Structure to design on (153 residues):
């Protein structure tokens, strides 16, 4: 009996370490589930906003263009969120670390970001916003994971 309990405990620990345990996911649908791992979060202050966009270039980063947004309490060095998606397909993600918790992506007087941010595929954004083509990724039926690195100015 002790051996069985030990094996069950070990299995639960292994599953939780991989994120395979059931996690509360935002959104409706059962076609696909997307786990987003945001790495490089510098501090456990504020929240990390993860915004999911459809495969429509004009909707990417546009007001009211998102499909879903999750705001998770920031955890350093990594914050994780999950989306239930209506179907497999092509999507895009933008994230930012809202360190002060004001629910706004802060910028300086020149319009440059003052908070950490990132995009799916770790698309570069050093000279402006990344192209829509560079942030698109495919989600398959079942569980999917994407990793996004937070970049700070």
């Amino acid at each position: 009996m002790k051996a069985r309990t030990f094996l069950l405990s070990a299995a639960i620990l292994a599953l939780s370490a991989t994120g395979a345990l059931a996690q509360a996911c935002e959104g409706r649908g059962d076609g696909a589930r997307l786990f987003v791992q945001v790495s490089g979060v510098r501090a456990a202050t504020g929240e990390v906003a993860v915004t999911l966009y459809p495969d429509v270039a004009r909707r990417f980063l546009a007001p009211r263009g998102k499909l879903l947004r999750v705001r998770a309490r920031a955890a350093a060095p990594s914050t994780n969120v999950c989306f239930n998606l209506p179907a497999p397909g092509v999507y895009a993600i933008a994230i930012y670390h809202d360190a002060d918790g004001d629910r706004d992506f802060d910028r300086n007087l020149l319009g440059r970001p003052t908070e950490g941010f990132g995009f799916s595929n770790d698309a570069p954004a050093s000279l402006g916003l990344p192209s829509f083509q560079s942030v698109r990724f495919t989600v398959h039926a079942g569980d999917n994971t994407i990793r996004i690195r937070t970049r700070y100015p």
